[in-house]
């Protein structure tokens, strides 16, 4: 196992007290905190400069969200493992974390013991989600992502536009195709995603609820 003082960490949170508390806990437990940030842009800069072992990021930060930071850092091919710390328990946030292949997702209510457990699991190349999340929710999200991967390129484009609450006629006009073609794609998407209610409003509702993950397709 890697010694704690060899684990370099960048932490980011726009709440000063949370940032300080996390910093103090990590230092007291012999971790090597190489950078702190209070907004997403600072976090991204520190990750790119230090290429830390771990980045612990809040999701809701000014300028760039934690998800934005992770997406942009991954485009730069850093070796950092990413763990988000958030108050958000909603399924759409879990979905986006899964879609971005984030290594860990913790809640701010979790104990420092669980943070350490998450760090250890992540360093062993495992994905760790807070114990507060129900297994059924995590499995449902994974299944939704698996189904979406089977959509064709055209179907993914249509689904993204549906998630933006655009009508079939608006989508047809934007993509220079017929409304009939859009409706055919919608029908195929409903079948592939196994949406129970087969009317078009059901797809609109499903797409809106999953809009954060659809954005990453």
Write the layout of secondary structure elements.
Layout: E1 8-12, H1 16-28, E2 32-37, H2 40-50, E3 54-58, H3 66-75, E4 81-86, H4 91-99, E5 104-107, H5 112-123, E6 128-129, H6 135-148, H7 153-163, H8 168-175, H9 179-192, H10 200-209, H11 211-214
Structure explained in plain terms:
- The structure is a single chain.
- The chain contains eleven helices and six strands.
- Helix 4 crosses helix 6 (135-148) and helix 7 packs across helix 10.
- The mean pLDDT is 90.
- It has helices spanning 16-28, 40-50, 66-75, 91-99, 112-123, 135-148, 153-163, 168-175, 179-192, 200-209, 211-214; strands at 8-12, 32-37, 54-58, 81-86, 104-107, 128-129.
- It is α/β, with parallel strands linked by helices.
- InterPro entries: CheY-like_superfamily, NreC/VraR/RcsB-like_REC, Sig_transdc_resp-reg_C-effctor, Sig_transdc_resp-reg_receiver, Tscrpt_reg_LuxR_C, WalR-like.
- Residues 144-209 form the HTH luxR-type domain.
- This is Response regulator transcription factor.
């Amino acid at each position: 196992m890697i010694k704690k003082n060899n684990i370099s960490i960048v932490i980011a949170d726009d709440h000063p007290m949370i940032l300080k508390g996390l910093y103090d806990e990590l230092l007291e437990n012999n971790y090597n905190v190489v950078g702190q940030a209070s907004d997403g842009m600072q976090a991204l800069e520190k990750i790119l400069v230090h290429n830390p072992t771990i980045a612990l990021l809040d999701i809701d930060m000014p300028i760039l969200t934690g998800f934005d930071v992770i997406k942009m850092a991954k485009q730069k091919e850093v070796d950092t493992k990413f763990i988000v710390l958030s108050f958000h328990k909603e399924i759409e946030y879990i979905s986006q974390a899964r879609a971005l292949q984030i290594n860990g997702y913790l809640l701010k209510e979790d104990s420092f013991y669980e943070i350490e457990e998450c760090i250890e699991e992540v360093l062993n190349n495992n994905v760790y989600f807070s114990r507060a999340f129900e297994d059924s929710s995590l499995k449902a999200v994974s299944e939704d992502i698996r189904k979406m991967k089977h959509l064709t390129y055209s179907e993914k484009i249509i689904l993204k536009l549906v998630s933006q609450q655009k009508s079939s006629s608006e989508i047809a006009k934007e993509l220079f195709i017929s409304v009939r073609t859009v409706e055919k794609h919608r029908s195929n998407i409903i079948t592939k995603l196994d949406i129970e209610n087969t009317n078009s409003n059901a797809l609109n509702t499903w797409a809106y609820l999953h809009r954060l993950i659809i954005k990453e397709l």
